[in-house]
Amino acid sequence: MKGKKLVSLLLAGVVAGSILVASTTTAERVVAQTPMEAATEYYDAYIARDAEGMMFYSKDINYLDEKSREEGYVKDFKTNPTTGYEIVGSKQINSNEVEISVIEKYAGQGYEQSPPLPYKVFKSDNGWKVLVEPLEINTATGEVTKGTPIHQRKYTDN
Hints:
Elements: H1 2-28, H2 35-47, H3 51-56, E1 58-60, H4 66-77, E2 82-94, E3 97-106, E4 117-124, E5 127-132, E6 135-137, E7 144-146
Parallel strand pairs: 1-5
Antiparallel strand pairs: 2-3, 3-4, 4-5, 6-7
């Protein structure tokens, strides 16, 4: 009899804990009220390998839909060497758009950080969001240029 009560108590604790974790995670996601809040929340989620957080605080034109976007983020987490970031600049474009520069810090690469990467942060119906566009970095020169969205890339097996 004691064994059954203990199992019931443990199960109730697990269920209650799951509900608490789920509600805490949801409660932590607040609409970004400023461009810097959106950028910080997005990059904190990026470093934490939190796909839901990244999706909440950004619009990413690399993907055709939310399903492929989430799958792409999860796949990227397995090989992404980014361990930190620093927002090194911001410029107000207008009342609905800010341009920021972000340096990404890397581990285990031949280079320790990216050159300043340009991002736009825009005001949406759901607060401020980071616009994630495809970028290409020439690691030899540090030049950053517009890239090709993931959904448009063509791969060949040679």
